[in-house]
Protein 1
Amino acid sequence: KDFDLVIRNGTIVTSSDIFSGDIGIKRGEIKELGRNLSERAEDVYDAKGKYIFPGGIDAHTHLDMPFGGTFSSDDFNTGTKAAAIGGTTTIVDFAVQPQGKTLNETIEMWREKADGNACIDYGLHLAITQMNDKTREEIPQVIRDGYSSFKVFMIYEGMMVDDLTFMEVLDIASENNGLISVHAENPFVIDYFTKKLLESGKTAPKYHEISRPAYCEGEATNRAISLAKMTNAPLYVVHCSCEESASEIKKAREEGFPIMGETCPQYLLLSRDNYEEEGFNGAKYVMSPPLRDKKNWNYLWKALNDGVLQTVATDHCPFFMKQKRMGLDDFTKIPNGAPGIELRMALMYSYGVDKGNISIEKFVQLTSTNVAKIFGLYPKKGSIVVGGDADLMIFDPEKKVKISKDILHENVDYTPYEELELKGYPVATFSRGELIAEDGEYIGSENRGEFIKRSGPKII
Ligand code: DUC
Ligand code: ZN
Ligand code: ZN
Ligand code: ZN
């Protein structure tokens, strides 16, 4: 037989086209796109009435991530299973360089967490926390080894770098065809407001947001972009939460600089009002950057539509409420982060495509194709093309779901999207031609995910 599997009768949607037809798959790759391929297949999956999208690529996850004396509660096994059920077939997680460790030691630590655990394919970004002769020497080597993107934190004790180090990372990584991403907030602003708040007894979760206003993100984004301009480096700004940061990207792009940006479903769908939830429940939404005023939603949708922002990732970084309670008397001790890895595709379809905020092709661009291009995975991943991996999400646009934590598989005891209504939900996920999730359950083989060496970025 020509194919191990044919997925027939679906409506195939890519970043630029919609057509109905069959997908012929052999040894995990797409071999043919056409009609009436079923007879030449060992196995047939009928996708009648369903959309077939390129599998989601989430380029911003924190699995098994040390933070504030604890660890994010999804590891590479539980987190990638939840991702798979939600239609995501590739993640790029952050390996954060511990103080005193080399980049190669950092890689070893994170590969130990991921290898033999992950159930979908994965890459790693390297978060550089210190610059020395060893780091300078390692950057070109790790890029050659497939770690082609880096992150710089402008905040967080133990992770943040100063502008000097940031510039050097930009300079060296870009010279070697690496891409630098940045978490942009100003740590001095946060310290200043935090001290004042705590001194006046303002310790509740909602003060997290008040301690780091939108200008704090806007200023840092402007500074990061300025450093990138001066070093002729491309830059990718992660998790833009507001107009103050996204407008800096817009301006730089209009000037012709290779600056790109990401937002996340939480900044499009949730707001600072969530911090008003009763008791300590506001802690569910303590993440950085924080949720903003609702008025930013429209700006961010428009930025996605206009190509100012190119991707939507999750920043998935879950903590159980018991972990969040470390900050019961002091919001600065609440571990930062929230879950989202399982719902990204469904949320972006329902609130993006179904509600008319984005086109269906734009949905594919934001959740898969653009991500693959920017992070050196394209065209193996991020599209539905002959020769590409058969990473596919089968999606029922009519399926109605009311979100509750009980239907999710993330290893955490809440979802920030509780009670939101969805129209459209993933019903099956294929990774390299293997059916790994169906109807809300992971059914793939264990630990089947493979590490992916990534090439340099395509600037879009
Ligand atoms: N922000 C979070 O909310 N969690 C982890 C890291 C980050 O930058
Ligand atoms: Zn961040
Ligand atoms: Zn993050
Ligand atoms: Zn289940």
Protein 2
Amino acid sequence: METVRIFGIPVAKMNKRETVEYLTRAVEQKKPHHVVTINPIMIMAALEHPAHMAVMKRAELVIPDGAGVVWAAGYVGNPVKERVPGIEVMGELLAVAEQRGWRVYLVGAAPEVIAAAVERMRAVHPKLQIVGYRDGYFGEAEDEAVVEDIRRAAPDLLFVGRSAATQEPWIDKYKERLSVPVMMGVGGSFDVWSG
Ligand code: UDP
């Protein structure tokens, strides 16, 4: 996969359609991918926190979400094709999931927000298999139970919508155990889905 390095973080040069196709293959091949949709705020945070930078560099796929990332790639003379918003990639993956019978698990946002987001997803995608969901307000003490519940549900797609500073290190820490083909940080996307 072609990438452009922005402060050493390899950002994929695929457009949105190619990104969805790539992740569709990841699901079919059952190969775990931590997908980061990166924006300039996340890059700034990573520059200040080496542990966070390491997470960005270890992710299997980093996609250019923010307009600033698209600008930076052009600035270093290695442009990406287009901005690839994470929320749109999630939306398209949900449609593919419905068609192909993939299992989906959602973690993040406040309890009433994630419940409303699930309701709306089920209205838009009646055959979508949402095999589990929970809010994003839990601490390390609960990680074990959350990880076990996800493992038991065996999803193909796992969307984690907590703050960027939380969701990416969390996915990184547990990705081997979770071993879900697509594990993607989606920030505030559940708030948007909840209506
Ligand atoms: N969120 C969460 N758990 C937390 C903090 C935030 O689930 O511990 C959710 C929050 O409800 C929202 C999303 O993460 O749905 C993004 O939150 P916010 O905009 O505060 O984070 P930022 O993107 O600014 O880091």
Protein 3
Amino acid sequence: MTTTAAVNPTQQRTAEVVADIFGVINERLVRHSVTYPEYQAAKAWLIKVGEAGEWPLLLDVFFEHTIEKLASERRQGSSGCIEGPYYVPGAPELSSPATLPQRPDEPGDVLVFTGTVRDLDGNPLPGSVVDIWQADALGYYSQFHPDPPQWNLRANVTTGADGRFEITTVVPAPYEIPKEGPTGQLIRAAGWHHWRPAHLHMMVRAQGCRTLTSQLFFAGGEYVDEDIASAVKPELTLELAHLGDGRYAAEYDFTLDPA
Ligand code: MBD
Ligand code: FE
């Protein structure tokens, strides 16, 4: 790689970071004595990742956790977590207490998810929004799987005067990376497992605050200790309580940093 004089800071940053990453890749090709057949297989596979539309999936599973941990170092409030590939803006706007859009026969156990959104001083943030999305009890996300209707288990829930939210939904299933696609093929070729533990996704927004993108997991759930996306943090684990009528409850309070 030739190095030309950088003319502005952005160009300098691009040149430094990309040259370093490409340099590391080239070193590793040497370390592993990568052959022409391996290079050609990798090239064909990378082309398939694009053709299958799996770049968001592949990058978010294997790399977003690093970027997110770096970004979290600059936060004092609640921990964040990766956004992943399945967020869709513009979900229905509901007010707490809210039930997420779902089918009349929505499978799974009912979950009542409650909490309060506050600032760093502990003041509740009325009118803040919990933009929540999740897989259903079969592990399918609406708009990324043909079965669930468009906004199934997605909503922007506005908190009440006390900054509190109560969101009725269902307990999600663990998520299996699709096996048919190039990402799934790679995982199988390496002998890894295809799973993320069950999780809820959310972006929490409030006037004057830095938006928090996070996920919450379930204590003791399958794959919590072996997330293929390396995104689980201990402080993001919910304890599921029994409400006694077959429903489950979980509570989590969000603390937002100033903008
Ligand atoms: C998911 O549901 C997810 O949250 C991430 C980060 C990657 C793949 C599927
Ligand atoms: Fe997810």
